[in-house]
Amino acid sequence: MKEEEAVQKGIDIEKLKEEQRKLAKTLEIKDTFDFSNCQRYAAIVVESLKNRELIASVAVLDEDMKLIEDKYIMKMPKFPYIPGFRAYRELPIMQAVYEKLEEQPDVIFILGQGISHPQGLGIASHLSLVINKPVIGITQSLMLGEEKNDDIILGKKIVAKKMKTKQESRPIYVSPGNLISLKTAIEITKKCLRDPHKLPEPVVEARKTIARVKKELDL
Fold first, then answer.
1. How far is residue 59's CA from residue 31's CA, in Å, rounded to a whole number?
2. Would the CA dihedral through 168, 202, 85, 134 be positive or negative?
3. Which of 6, 50, 189, 206 has the fewest CB atoms within 10 Å, i.e. the most exposed one?
4. Whether the model pTM is above 0.85
């Protein structure tokens, strides 16, 4: 759904943008934890099913990138898909699946934007504010910003980095969400990469969980 359509349906887009800008001012794009002591790495992935329901999975891995725990949940969204406002649609299910965990991760990956967002508050940033955990945003395309070498610049600020993680594949873009610096977000992403995968292993495992559930339940 485009913003114009959302307005026609009674959604106050300007109010949501203002909320995003206000929340963006509270972000801490700095290391709030000694990430050299990380022992648990997680990812939360959300997909849409044929019946419009959402399925979310979370996977927690150890330092050797071995799966420790995974959970999933399905929920019908109460908000439409509007680019730039994914959090209003997906945050409830992300928070719900995160709360099912027994193992607490030190850092979480999200397939979505961090501070590389029109209002400075992508879904990775928004989630971090809700669960108070460091979150890293990983995308395979840019929403906005200017590329200068590997830097993604918005205004005069570097909001993401381009990373080539697999030969003959397009790069990924890494953007800090909250409670972590861009430099450390890049380091953690590199640490979680394993051949032959393009994406960090926690994301790979969370996707596998969804694929398994969809197959088992014939979704």
1. 23
2. negative
3. 50
4. yes
